[in-house]
Amino acid sequence: MELYEALNIHYSNYDEDSRLLSRHGSVEFFTTIRYVEKYLQKGMRILEIGAGTGRYSHYFARQGFEVDAVELIPHNIEIFRQNTLAEESIRIFEGNALNLSMLQDESYDAVLLLGPMYHLYTLPEKRQALAESLRVLKTGGMLFIAYCMADSSIIQYAFGKNNWKELVEKKLLNPETFEARSTPEELFEIIRREHIDQINQGFPVRRLHFVGTDMYTNYFRAMIDAMDEETFAFYLKYHFCICERQDMVGLSNHTLDILQKTGNT
After folding, report:
1. What is the pLDDT of residues 53-63, one digit of tens each?
2. What is the widest separation between alpha-carbon atoms in the chain?
């Protein structure tokens, strides 16, 4: 089965909006929004690449920003359009992160690349997605890139669900270094910080933040979902205090690499 077909099947049967709206899923959403909003000013143009059903695009369009969105999966685009309000200034393009030829150079003040790196499996593909994102981003603009981290998957899937033997046999987990790898069959690419640094190497960017957007939330989903409002608010306060601690961030399920474009690509 080709990757596009597999992704189409997966996202046609998976409710991403519900994940981000659940209490434990909302931690990732609130954290991402918090950091994007640090760098937004009135009148800025935003591009979201791999926009899914539009959870983030809708949020920013409803705050008054002009938003363009690129999405690969037709099912997601259909839901995106159904949920778009008349007052939203938003355009939706069908396309992928490796080829944004429909968009002009230096057109956007902020670019959100919050899904594509989950499904790109080679360094050249990841660097191509980064190059295209930077091409359409204005110099001085902000790029927000989401990744799925490897060690959280090792802890939760290899050990938590007792799949470590299968992973070792399939050569998806090195039993000596515990470096993990993914293939399109697994759908989701998992990564470490040093690999992210390799992706960025040589591009005209500077890193402003490297954030764990859910940190340890997914290790304790039931506990998080059972919290009362006061306790959850206090948990979020704690989460925001630790989400940039580099001694902890590697165990987050998802991270956000926040880069500023410093020159032309």
Report:
1. 999 999 999 99
2. 55
